[in-house]
Specification:
Low-confidence stretches: 1-21, 250-254, 358-362
Distance between the termini: 25 Å
Shape: elongated
Strand content: 25-35%
Largest sheet: 11 strands, mixed
Number of strands: 17
Radius of gyration: 22 Å
Helix content: 25-40%
Order of helices and strands: EEEHHEEEEEEHEHEHEHHEEEHEE
């Protein structure tokens, strides 16, 4: 079934009054084809969403789910007015996981653990109507477990009056990873203290190796640069002997088209360090409104002694400040380098719930 329309319950749902002159209906998009057709209207809604981030954009979530989590079954909750106008979306999926003698139907974020800050995308001002409809629909779905990681404080999902705790009260809240964010409104030098002095010393040494160019990749080089980044990222992860990591496809065959499309649309940028034309360090920076976020970065293992990781992040932050971004998000995690740039801004939240029954015994 392409779209399932959930029946009304407890004052929300299809053709049910939930406010003055407002009727809402909830649909569950289960088909990849229908999900692709939803992208355009979802994107327009996302552009109006003040709380949104690069992590809730359909241009990121839809291709990631299809390319890297093909076993996930989309369960995207869609809230519309009676006239069909899109008011809210909660991008979720079902993961089927065997645990001992049972199969679990686990509700997860649409693109799984390769993205952070899962959240609903809602028409500004409509949260008091849309969130209860979304949470009621989630509660009525068929699932055995919910697992949402790295929910950002301030997300719609955590709203005190309308969030998941009200609609799905059996959900448990657990502390997640620390958050690292940096305000670009001040002009402080980064990184701090002796780390900056060492970075500048290594940068001078790097200039002795050849012509160094640092900056955003130009539009006419985006396609080639995207392929270079994929190869660079793969070499780094192979060098680090990381087994479970995100490879970003094959540069020759299926280099993610979204990279070039997002660069061209201004929703992402590729910031690079080149030595005599060779890409030796690079970072993908996502952007929503005036909020930048470091998505992936990599450096050439042969140049590791130059501290290219710190260098490319530092220069990318400075470039984001120059183009007018107000905030830079390092993302959640415990990596020590993040403390060199950003101030810990609390922690993410993990939400879990389980409701098992014997019908799933194998």
């Amino acid at each position: 079934m392409t779209i399932e329309s959930l029946p009304p319950r407890a004052g929300v749902g299809r053709d049910t009054d939930v406010g003055p002159s407002r009727q809402l209906r909830v649909e569950v998009v289960c088909s990849r084809d229908q999900l692709c057709r939803l992208e355009e209207s979802w994107s327009r809604l996302h552009q109006r969403e003040a709380r949104g981030s690069g992590w809730t954009a359909p241009q990121l979530l839809v291709p990631f789910q299809q390319a890297y989590f093909p076993g996930y079954r989309p369960r995207v909750l869609v809230v519309r007015d009676a006239d069909g106008t899109l008011r809210g979306i909660l991008p979720l999926a079902l993961e089927f996981r065997r645990v001992g003698p049972i199969y679990l139907r686990r509700v997860v974020a649409l693109a799984g653990t390769q993205v952070v800050y899962p959240d609903a995308v809602i028409e500004p001002g409509a949260e008091p109507l849309v969130m209860p409809a979304l949470t009621s629909a989630l509660r009525r779905m068929s699932w055995d477990e919910i697992r949402l990681r790295w929910v950002e404080p301030g997300a719609h999902l955590l709203h005190v009056a309308h969030g998941l705790a009200q609609g799905v009260p059996e959900l448990r809240q657990e502390p997640g990873d620390p958050l690292w964010k940096l305000s670009l409104r001040n002009q402080q030098e980064l990184p701090r203290g002796s780390t900056r002095k060492e970075m500048l010393r290594r940068l001078r040494r790097l200039h002795e190796r050849g012509e160094i160019i640092i900056g955003w990749e130009p539009e006419d080089r985006l396609a080639a640069a995207a392929e270079e980044f994929v190869l660079l990222h793969t070499r780094l992860k192979d060098h680090q002997q990381q087994i479970a990591f995100y490879r970003m496809g094959s540069a020759r065959h299926d280099s993610p088209e979204w990279l070039v499309e997002e660069f061209a649309a201004g929703r992402a940028g590729l910031f690079s360090v080149r030595c005599d034309g060779q890409l030796i360090a690079s970072a993908i920076i996502l952007r929503h409104r005036e909020r930048a976020c470091c998505f992936r970065f990599a450096w050439e293992p042969a140049f590791a002694t130059f501290g290219l990781g710190i260098m490319v992040v530092t220069k990318a932050i400075e470039a984001c400040r120059e183009r007018g971004d107000l905030d830079f998000d390092m993302g959640p995690g415990v990596e020590p380098y993040k403390g060199e740039f950003a101030t810990r801004g609390g922690s993410t939240v993990d939400r879990k719930s389980t409701r098992l029954n014997s019908s799933h015994l194998v």
